[in-house]
Amino acid sequence: MRQGVQSEVPLPMQLVSNEEFPPLPQTPAQRRVEDRILAEAGRLAPRLGLSRREFLRRSGGMAASLLAMNAVFGHFFDVLPLEAADAAAFQERTGAPLFIFDVQLHYVSAGYDPSNAEAGRKGAVSKQALLGLRRASRRLNPKLESDRGTLADLSWENFVKEVFFDSETSIGLISTPPGPYPQDAVVPPKEMTHIRDEINRVTQSRRMLAHGLVSPQLGQADLDFMDQQAATLKVDAWKAYTGAAAKGFDRGWFLDDEKIAYPMLEKARKLGVRRFCVHKGLPLGPVADYNHPRDLIKAAKDFPEIDFLVYHSGLLSVTAPKPTGEVPWTTEFCQMKKQAGLTNIYMELGSTFGQLVTTNPTACAHLLGQMVDAFGVDHVLWGTDSIWYGTPQWQIEAFRRFEIPVALIEKHGYAPLTRGEKEQIFGLNASRVFGVDVTARRNEIPKDYLSRMKMTYLDDGAAPSHRWYGWVTG
After folding, report:
1. Nearest-angstrom CA–CA distance, 397 and 393
2. So what's the pLDDT on residue 142?
């Protein structure tokens, strides 16, 4: 189970796991950044008539955080000292809001009931099992020893608050971790599409899309379930986990396996739902290699009508780049793509950007530079993997201000990330892939929605929680 990490600082200065990889301890550099943020907040807050916590929850806190990152890691963020003390300056230099389409969002279904014997027999993940993950994680995180948390932090109600009330996200795609069968995932397709339809109904606009789930473990039954998801649920895309060792597989499977995976891809093509999102990188399951993205090359060649979205950019792990700038798995995949000359593969940034930018901005710069070079800036998609990381706003602010250093541009030939290119990544690319009209009106969620949650929230004073829903190493 995920541990809620509470901090005053706007950027997480310790690696938080979404349970798709083991978290690393806080690095000395991250500790220095955190100390600088808190010291600067302590200096500026009294001058502005604010408490330290109040200061850090405003734009000045984000500016101070990015300045601290620059001081420790080198210049990676476009931010000036005056922005820490002047909210108007921060807003002016930030520029007009951008259209933001987050193609990977998560929450945990309320339907997981440990007393549900039928679900247990099917192998569905129960609340008790999820809470058991928290207990099992104590050897990595001693701070969990006294934890008495619940799943409320991961509910769809809190998901709505963190994504739509606390961030600039315009539209999002609901995803889910896998289960033993697609119907028994942490959030089953029926519920994902229900939440999508409910949010779009109350806003009278398109604010949410939803995944269907695929797994080639039951043969014809899986193909029939794809029929049902497309016809009845009207799913917007498919989600697959090749390394999750689904029930019936002792390890995992590959997308280019003509016997196992191709019937599923043929079905996707026939049904007309031709967006295929696949977890690649951040290895899941007992054998890491099933998470390597190399199998997309042949699959994408053989199914040119399908757009393949590579979740997590195929990143092996959150580590420093090699002296050559190589980022394990992602660099190799970029080279493979350039040789193949494909145009139907898109690289998604969920977990990858958020983890790298706060842990090793140099690796983040190499990854972005290489992906834009190999795939084109029009084939990189914004995703945050929130709600695991709380509100996605801190990732939005960090990416909007992120710059590839001149030294890396000159040495490796990377293209600088302009505002226009970031605008493509933030949402224009995904809108093209998913057929979303960027200019269409998108109404806000009503104030009395979710038992008048937003009204109460605003009356109390909007205050992002700075909570990241993952687990950490103490």
Report:
1. 6
2. 47
Is 260 within 8 Å of 225 (Cβ atoms)?
no
Residue range 165-201, pLDDT digits in tens: 889 999 999 998 887 778 778 889 999 999 999 899 8
Q: Are 455 and 447 in contact (CB under 8 A)?
A: yes
Biggest CA-to-CA distance, the chain: 67
- Copy the structure tokens of residue 404: 């590839």
**How far is it, in rounded angstroms, from Cα 59 to Cα 276?**
37
Residue 133: Cβ within 10 Å count: 13
- Could you tell me the pTM of the whole model? 0.88
- Domain positions in the chain are 4-95, 101-108+155-434
Q: How far apart are CA 61 and CA 64, in angstroms?
A: 5
The reported pLDDT for the residue numbered 36 is 94
Q: Say how many C-beta atoms besides its own lie within 10 A of residue 415's C-beta.
A: 13
What's CA 472's distance to the chain center, in Å? 17
Q: Which residue has the tokens 């393949």?
A: 308
What tokens were used for 280?
């690649």
Amino acid at 1: M
Q: 386-441 pLDDT, tens per residue?
A: 888 888 999 999 999 999 999 999 999 999 999 999 999 999 999 999 999 999 99
CATH topology of domain 101-108+155-434: TIM Barrel (3.20.20)
Q: Could you tell me where the DSSP H helices lie in 138-253?
A: 156-160, 189-203, 220-228
Distance between CA atoms of 22 and 474, rounded to whole angstroms? 12
d(CA 59, CA 61): 5
Provide the pairing of β-strand 4-6 with 467-469: antiparallel
Q: Which residue bears the tokens 């605008």?
A: 423
